Amino acid sequence: MKSMETSATAPNFSPQRALQLARQTLTIEAAAVSGMMDRLDASFAAAVDLILHSKGRLIVSGMGKSGHIARKIAATMAST
Asked: Fewest Cβ atoms nearer than 10 Å: which of 6, 21, 31, 71?
């Protein structure tokens, strides 16, 4: 593993460009999250109700990235 030197910056690094890209990314992500509000409907509430009133275990699964998300959901459900 290559160690990172804190005193040197990568060639062609621009702090202004990094900030611009970070702000652009956050703007895009904020719009996506905001857009999700319009998609919430009775089916979301029904899913929550099913989970709250279930007996036994809740099973989540996935492969790859969705598997990582499933593990995070399982950990959250186990701790709440």
From this structure: 6
Query: E strand or H helix at 7, and its extent?
Result: none
Question: 3-49: per-residue pLDDT in tens?
Answer: 555 556 778 999 999 999 999 999 999 999 999 999 999 999 999 99
Question: Rounded to the nearest 10 degrees, how much is the dihedral formed by the CA atoms of 58, 62, 64, 65?
Answer: -60
Q: Provide the CB-side half-sphere exposure for 73 (13 A, CA).
A: 13
2: left (phi over 0), alpha (psi -120 to 50) or beta: beta
C-alpha to C-alpha distance for 51 and 78, rounded to whole angstroms: 13
Residue type for 13, please?
F
The CA-based diameter of the chain, rounded to the nearest angstrom, is 57
